């Protein structure tokens, strides 16, 4: 059956009299949506179906942010007032690692018991005239869609409504690596507590927080393999509870834990391609989930309800309202899910960080989701943040990004790198005035290291006719002009060259004329590990023979010799983004059956041969780095585990750092874009392969740079687009932080601009839903 009012068919206006609304699921999201809709229009006929009893609930405490509470206050002061009398509030987070406790304050939490929250919402719904039906299964979704004008599916992570219309909602459900159990303790923690237990079976963690004056939520979590090794898979509920209390006896003060039909489970991330179908709409966990470690499940559901109620009041038709609701909430939820994914993966990989000093470990944990940052934490608790900085080695008043970093014989005065960016502005491989101005401006802008674009080792190794090269002495002389400018006019700034070969991605148009499109004329033949075109319509490359591999290796070494003579301080070997050396590393692009294809060890063979040859001719005191694609973002491609092995292999051959990028290897990739989206790969390489790394990928603020470096997730941060937007990005970062020190030097010609200009006032956004803005008629007796 298909819901009535399918998309494209006009539904009654949301404010039409006697609108019939069915809510499936009596959790906080469903109840609050019902209360809001009835509050805003008492003529609506609203029914909530909940298959469990009124006081049945799973889990114990609920944490709500000040932002969410502000939305509730403006939308329904009565609910807000009831909540505020119940809340337990606290500011501190305690992190206990290897018997050392570090406390960070200023975080502002508010929590209450989940059962009490439901009681408040039950009372509010009943006082408004909402029909609450407990211990009763809702009619089937298709039937509800026929008999009601609006169906709100708030039936949780295992939503039957979502399942019934899975072909429309197209859910994607991802299970993760940890097992966890939701328990409670009959005392109140005085802070949000994270406790790490290193057992003979592996690492386990406790997440605990108070939800009343005499009770706390306690979640115990560990990797699946640790859970099995510890024997939890063979214990019943009582045995699991007793074992958890014993393992975390110090955190609990020897007190017991209790359960509530608690079972070990694996968190599942739910994402839906669509949230509505006709007059059926998903809300809360039915539409999306976010890991409990950032405490956003109930928060997101309540905010969904606020947005849905507002859109129903603002839009002329139900169809328009549901479209507006999804358009508003989807980006917010996507951002939260990215943060939650970063947080859960941090805990999945917790063992990587155990060797960190306890204070840095605490900072790393606090900033794991990238929602809390260095600057944000400094505002909340300056004393804690300054202590972390001192432990890291920051001189007084020096942000982490302006601390020096040494690579072999090169000391960079700060941690900022201008990332390689193809400019497609060379003539016959010759860098000209544009390159001088482009790279010179960014060198004057204060970065510790400025990188060239990919410089090609042969004419056939170019991506486009506009790519720069180092296959001739004339080109080396042109580069020398640029390095001399940097060393003379921006003393203290290093300049590096990135050497590469386009492989199967060559002989294409300039980016702005048609990215990755073959030239209309003047094409040159392509070579690659295997004869696979980059995408349909691309030129098919020839498979490289053994003799050609030798020639290529010599082209790289000849270019490296010229680079040294040209005065470059650092050389990076480009083994990423689907270019020639990257093509050997990925199983999606290397189908060879000889000694250079097959296993990862064999796929590494030629890139390592090139690295060794280049390292042999590159000056001993100058560092070499390698850029890799840590994932292909495609099934069957390079994995994060492969990336660690690749990085370790290059480090064993003498690489001084790994520049960790991702993707661009195959045309049908599906990247997971977002702020700092590639940094988790750098983090893993650094802390598992134990090699210095350069993090890249949508790092856009100096706050991100400080956070990543201080947490020990990277050693250097490479930024591309921010430096296109602002060539003096690093200088301005120093000015905005009030830093004046050796980590960045203003050219004397620019010194007058070293203070940020004054800006005008900006007002805070209005609350999402304010009752005075919408038609309102009180229900009788409300």
UniProtKB/TrEMBL annotation:
Name the UniProt record assigns to this protein: Bifunctional salicylyl-CoA 5-hydroxylase/oxidoreductase
InterPro entries, per the entry: Aldolase_TIM, FAD-bd, FAD/NAD-bd_sf, OxRdtase_FMN_N, YqjM-like
Domain NADH:flavin oxidoreductase/NADH oxidase N-terminal, chain residue ranges per copy: 401-734
Disordered: annotated segments: 745-782
Segments crossing the lipid bilayer: none
Gene3D superfamilies, per database record: 3.30.9.20, Aldolase class I, FAD/NAD(P)-binding domain
All residue ranges annotated as the FAD-binding domain in the record: 20-337
Organism annotation: Streptomyces werraensis
């Amino acid at each position: 059956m298909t819901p009535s009012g399918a998309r494209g068919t006009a539904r009654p206006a949301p404010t039409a009299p006697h609108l019939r609304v069915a809510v499936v699921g009596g959790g906080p999201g469903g109840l609050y949506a019902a209360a809001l809709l009835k509050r805003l229009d008492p003529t609506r006929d609203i029914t909530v179906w909940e298959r469990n009893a009124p006081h049945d609930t799973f889990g114990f405490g609920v944490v709500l942010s000040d932002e969410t509470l502000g939305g509730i206050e403006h939308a329904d002061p009565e609910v807000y007032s009831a909540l505020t009398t119940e809340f337990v509030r606290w500011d501190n987070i305690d992190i206990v690692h290897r018997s050392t406790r570090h406390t960070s304050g200023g975080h502002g939490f508010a929590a209450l018991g989940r059962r009490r929250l439901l009681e408040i919402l039950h009372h509010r719904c009943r006082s408004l005239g909402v029909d609450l039906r407990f211990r009763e299964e809702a009619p089937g979704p298709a039937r509800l869609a026929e008999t009601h004008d609006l169906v709100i599916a708030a039936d949780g992570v295992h939503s039957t409504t979502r399942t019934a219309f899975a072909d429309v909602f197209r859910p994607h459900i991802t299970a993760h690596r940890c097992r966890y159990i939701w328990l409670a303790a009959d005392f109140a923690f005085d802070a949000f507590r994270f406790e790490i237990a290193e057992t003979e079976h592996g690492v386990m963690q406790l997440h605990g927080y108070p939800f009343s004056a005499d009770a706390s939520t306690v979640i115990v979590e560990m990797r699946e393999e640790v859970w099995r090794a510890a024997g939890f898979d063979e214990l019943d509920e009582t045995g699991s509870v007793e074992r958890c209390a014993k393992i975390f006896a110090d955190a609990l003060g020897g007190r017991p834990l209790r359960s509530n039909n608690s079972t070990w489970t694996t968190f599942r991330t739910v994402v839906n391609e669509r949230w509505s179908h006709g007059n059926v709409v998903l809300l809360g966990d039915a539409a999306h989930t976010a890991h409990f470690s950032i405490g956003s499940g109930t928060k997101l559901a309540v905010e969904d309800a606020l947005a849905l109620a507002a859109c129903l009041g603002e839009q002329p038709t139900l169809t328009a309202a549901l479209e507006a609701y999804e358009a508003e909430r989807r980006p917010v939820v996507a951002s939260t899910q990215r943060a939650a994914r970063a947080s859960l993966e941090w805990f999945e990989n917790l063992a990587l960080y155990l060797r960190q000093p306890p204070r840095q470990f605490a900072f790393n944990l606090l900033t794991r989701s990238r929602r809390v940052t260095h600057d944000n934490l400094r505002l909340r608790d300056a004393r804690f943040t300054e202590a972390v900085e001192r432990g890291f080695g920051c001189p007084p008043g020096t942000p982490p990004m302006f601390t020096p970093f040494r690579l072999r014989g090169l000391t960079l005065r700060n941690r900022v790198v201008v990332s390689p960016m193809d400019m497609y502005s060379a003539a016959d491989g010759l860098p000209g005035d544009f390159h001088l101005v482009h790279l010179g401006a960014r060198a004057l802008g204060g970065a510790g290291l400025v990188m060239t674009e990919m410089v090609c080792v042969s004419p056939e190794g170019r991506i486009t006719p506009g790519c720069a090269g180092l296959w001739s002495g004339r080109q080396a002389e042109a580069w020398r002009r640029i390095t001399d400018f940097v060393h003379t006019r921006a003393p203290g700034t290093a300049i590096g060259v990135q050497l590469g070969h386009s492989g199967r991605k060559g002989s294409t148009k300039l980016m702005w004329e048609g990215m990755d499109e073959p030239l209309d004329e003047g094409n040159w033949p392509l070579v690659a590990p295997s004869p696979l075109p980059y995408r349909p319509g691309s030129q098919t490359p020839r498979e490289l023979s053994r003799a050609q591999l030798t020639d290529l290796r010599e082209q790289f070494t000849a270019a490296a010799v010229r680079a040294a003579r040209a005065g470059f301080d650092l050389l990076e070997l480009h083994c990423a983004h689907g270019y020639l050396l990257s093509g050997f590393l990925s199983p999606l692009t290397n189908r060879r059956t000889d000694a250079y294809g097959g296993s990862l060890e064999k796929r590494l063979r030629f890139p390592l041969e090139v690295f060794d040859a280049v390292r042999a001719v590159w000056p001993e005191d100058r560092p070499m780095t390698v850029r890799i694609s840590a994932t292909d973002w495609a099934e069957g491609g390079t994995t994060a585990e492969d990336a660690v092995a690749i990085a370790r292999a290059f480090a064993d051959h003498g690489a001084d750092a790994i520049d960790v990028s991702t993707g661009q290897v195959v045309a049908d990739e599906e990247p997971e874009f977002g702020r700092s989206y590639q940094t988790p790969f750098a983090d893993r390489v650094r802390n598992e392969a134990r090699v210095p790394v350069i993090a890249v990928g949508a790092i856009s603020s100096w706050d991100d740079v400080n956070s990543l470096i201080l947490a020990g997730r990277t050693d250097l941060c490479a930024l591309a687009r921010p430096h296109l937007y602002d060539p003096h990005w690093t200088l301005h970062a120093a000015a905005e932080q009030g830093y004046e020190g050796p980590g960045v030097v203003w050219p004397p010609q620019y010194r007058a601009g070293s203070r940020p200009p004054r800006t005008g006032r900006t007002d805070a956004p209005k609350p999402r839903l304010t009752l005075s803005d919408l038609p309102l008629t009180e229900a009788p007796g409300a």
